[in-house]
Amino acid sequence: MSAILIVLRPLALLNTFLLRIGRHAAWMAMALMVLIIMLQVIFRYVFNNALAWPDEAARFLMLWMTGLIAPSAYRWGGFVAIDMLKDLLPLRLGSLLGLFLLLVSLVVLVYGFQLGLNHVKSGWLFNSSSLKIPLDFLGLGLVRVKLAWMYMSLPVGLFLMTLVNIELCLKTVAHLIDPDADLPEDHDRILLAVE
């Protein structure tokens, strides 16, 4: 049990830190995405002159927002789950079923992470059709954004979800060994629940 806690406590702290940064970046991406969409609406319907880049920029921000907020939702149990069978089983058997499902999820997350990395590799070959960074003031002109920066949201999100999954697996194993064990909590979730 002590070996599990030695690994679990630093992992829980790391996850809390990384997911807190991810949540802050996600709400900033969402706010920026809303502003960009509003800008496009104004240019399209008020000035009758739609801009080329806002749709792709909003999609870029939406992908990163999703990749950065999904691990927090996973950690807090925010994904859709059918718990009827688990709740009908005795506590220990339900915990074993939950552990089995977490392990299956871990396999899927690791495989998805590998696929995401392959997708990012292909993204370095292609430029965004409309996103360009104006670096004229540095004498570089317009620099086209590689699609890999957009695709990178997938492996980053899946990597963070894998860390969360490992934490949840360790907590489940620790709970199976000692149901009264003092396991690390996510204080951010408690703060959000109070507010």
Fold and architecture overview:
The chain is mainly alpha-helical. 73% of the residues lie in helices and 8% in strands. The protein has 7 helices and 2 strands. It has helices at residues 2-46, 54-75, 84-88, 91-123, 148-151, 153-177, 187-194, and strands at 127-135, 141-146. Strands 1-2 form a two-stranded antiparallel sheet. A hairpin with a 5-residue loop joins β1 and β2. α1 (2-46) packs antiparallel against α2 (54-75), α2 (54-75) packs parallel to α6 (153-177) and α4 packs antiparallel against α6. The radius of gyration is 21 Å and the shape is elongated. The mean pLDDT is 89.
Index terms:
mainly alpha, 195 residues
User: What is the overall shape?
Assistant: elongated
Helix fraction, binned, reads over 70%
Order of helices and strands: HHHHEEHHH
Strand residues, percent: 5-15%
Return the structural class: mainly alpha
Can you tell me the residue ranges where pLDDT is under 50 for at least 5 consecutive residues?
none
Number of helices: 7
Terminal Cα separation, in Å?
Answer: 34 Å
